[in-house]
Design goal:
Keywords: Membrane, Transmembrane, Transmembrane helix. Its main location: membrane. One of its GO terms (cellular component) is cytoplasm. GO terms for molecular function: glycosyltransferase activity. With about 575 residues, the chain is α/β, with parallel strands linked by helices. It folds into 3 domains: about 250 residues, Spore Coat Polysaccharide Biosynthesis Protein SpsA, Chain A; about 30 residues; about 250 residues, Spore Coat Polysaccharide Biosynthesis Protein SpsA, Chain A, CATH 3.90.550. The chain is about 35% helix and about 20% strand. It is built from 20 helices and 24 strands. The strands form 6 sheets. Strands 10, 11, 12, 13, 14, 15, 19, 22 and 23 form a 9-stranded mixed sheet that branches. A hairpin with a 2-residue loop joins β5 and β6. About 35% of the residues are buried.
Length: about 575
């Protein structure tokens, strides 16, 4: 499970009320999307990191800088300052970092200044080691009796990191962040000058919040100094989080607030009808609002709702986008049909190899779409799902959405019927990847299942340096497609990597030749590589950085359970 660290030296009970409100919201977000939000305090910090000499004597901001880098170096994951509001699934951003072949994500704070209020970093990499060593050298060489400058351990560290190894870092530029996480900055003095977040009308605030939510690059927003520098005195929470003119009202929308907001919309809508519609309809709605029955029935008979019995052609199906994967296509199809999948939906993403004869062998077991979604924007894969899978959701009760290097199965040989019967209350089932390495193969072997049997170890029901998961959705509950997990109406069941019910073997790199000659050159359906410059992608391919990184992790433990089930 991906970790997200934050720090407040004196602990939860002594947080300012606004910081406590933000933390509680972030906790709800982490529980919703199944990532781990870890609050580090002076009381529990020893549970996570080794403390450098004199740690407890440092100012709170310097302790925070040390905790940030030590935790990210040791564990990997995300860091957020306590004034950061999470609004989306960090698993998706983590997956994007992994897919990029880079080691860290940083944001420009203002103009050209790199910030460290939020960051993501892989553990034990050149970037985390650089930051870790920077702090240690500084602490060892800096006279303890001399006060450390405010920016020495944090901002100066990340600035030097980027200047030293920009090729290893995704840097979100100012044009990107000023439309997202940094739509306000500390320079705006947002506790006093509120015009960027406290707008003139609730409608304009809701519209702006919706734009932030729709921005694929915006996973969080920063409130900066509002909590400690403001002119709102005891009215702070009401102004920032309960005022419908505040952008933050909509970005921290929990279930209670959502019901209140939707109720106000319904009431406003009904009042609008009363003010503009004929008398007969006015009388009906007026009775409803006042909770009084009409003295005489105005409508003799209300038509009954149609009783539609929802029938599906298939119980469970699997869907995938593919490009130039004939080396695995036949084995992948045979695997899914053998474990009880009723139907397969395949979306060809401009393949140049001979995929059609393979698919033709399976007749009406497969529906094939030829993709024509063309865009250079990140998020293309979700657009493809929306175009081709949305229209056929009524055909299948459950749909697994995976890639052709992902083989879902049950180690306990549990049937889909029994699995869904056992967990019927859930709208989505997210299933952890098991990350498989190359097994030392240079050339691509005939069978993925038979040949790749070495994988990364699992610890505490997760993979070391966890990569991600894929999901099965109950189609009647699906609201919006994503890539790894989807927005659904209802709860999600998360199955860890040690689950015996369902796991996914992810043959992420396969052989060296496949990785270098196919995977690195075909691009990705979601256009993530467009976030990188071509030179960086080519350097990654030539230098085998990501291949070596994953292969080192993923050749530690034998797992031939799927092979033995064939």
């Amino acid at each position: 499970m991906v970790k997200c660290f934050c720090y407040w030296d004196s602990g939860y009970e002594k947080m300012p009320e606004m910081i406590k409100y933000i933390y509680n919201h972030n906790k709800e977000i982490s529980e919703k999307y199944k990532f781990e939000l870890i609050l580090v305090t002076d009381e529990n910090v020893k549970n996570y990191i080794y403390l450098p000499p004199g740690f407890m004597q440092f100012e709170a901001n310097h302790k925070s800088d040390i905790v940030r880098i030590y935790c990210l170096h040791k564990f990997g994951g995300f860091w957020i300052d306590m004034d950061v509001i999470l609004i989306k699934d960090l698993n998706l951003l983590w997956s994007a970092l992994i897919s990029s072949g880079k080691y860290a994500i940083l944001d420009i704070e203002l103009n050209s200044k790199i910030g460290c209020a939020t960051m993501a970093m892989l553990a034990n990499t050149v970037t985390s080691t650089f930051c870790y060593n920077y702090i240690n050298v500084l602490l060892e060489s800096y006279p303890m009796e001399q006060k450390i400058k405010w920016d020495f351990l944090g901002p100066a560290n990340v600035k030097l990191l980027y200047l030293t190894m920009p090729e290893n870092i995704i840097l979100n530029n100012y044009e990107k962040v000023k439309r997202g996480c940094n739509f306000i900055t500390w320079a705006d003095k947002p506790g006093f000058s509120k015009e960027k977040w406290l707008l003139k009308t609730p409608e304009s605030a809701k519209e702006f919040a919706d734009k932030l939510d729709a921005n694929v690059d915006c996973y969080y927003v920063i409130t900066w100094t509002i909590y400690k520098k403001n002119d709102m005195s005891n009215n702070l929470i009401d102004q920032v989080f309960n005022n419908k003119r505040s952008v933050f009202y909509y970005l921290t929308m929990n279930e209670t607030k959502r019901k209140e907001y939707e109720s106000s919309l319904r009431y406003a809508s009904i009042q609008d009808i009363i003010n503009n519609k004929p008398l007969l309809l006015t009388q009906i709605i007026d009775n409803y609002l006042n909770q009084k029955p009409a003295e005489k029935p105005i409508i003799d008979k209300i038509p009954e709702k149609s009783k539609v019995v929802q029938g599906y052609a298939y119980h469970v199906s699997v869907a995938a986008v593919f490009k130039n994967e004939t080396h695995a296509l036949d084995e992948w199809i045979r695997h899914y049909l053998s474990i009880g999948i009723d139907h397969i939906y395949l979306i060809n993403d401009f393949s140049t190899d001979a995929y059609k004869p393979i698919i033709a062998k399976y007749g009406n077991k497969i529906t094939l779409f030829e993709n024509n979604v063309i865009t250079s924007e990140f998020g293309r894969q979700s657009l493809i799902y929306e175009k081709y899978l949305r229209p056929i959701l009524g055909e299948t009760e459950y749909m697994a959405i995976v890639d052709l290097d992902e083989f879902l199965y049950s180690p306990a040989r549990l049937s889909f019927k029994d699995f869904f019967s056992k967990h019927d209350k859930y709208a989505q089932y997210t299933i952890n990847w098991l990350i498989f390495g190359s097994n030392g193969y240079i050339d691509q072997p005939e069978s993925l299942i038979d040949s790749f049997t070495m994988r990364a170890k699992t610890v505490n029901n997760d993979v070391i340096n966890p990569y991600d998961f894929k999901s099965i959705v109950k189609t009647s509950k699906l609201i919006k497609f994503s890539v790894h997990s989807h927005e659904c109406l209802g709860d999600t069941l998360f199955l860890g990597s040690e689950s015996e019910e369902m796991v996914i073997n992810h043959y992420i790199i396969q052989s060296l030749v496949f990785y270098m000659e196919v995977k690195c050159v075909r691009g990705c359906a979601d256009n993530f590589q467009n976030c990188l410059n071509k030179q960086a992608v080519e350097e990654q391919r030539k230098n085998r950085k990501r291949f070596n990184f994953i292969d080192k992790l993923a050749n530690e433990e034998v797992d031939d359970r799927l092979k033995l089930q064939k």
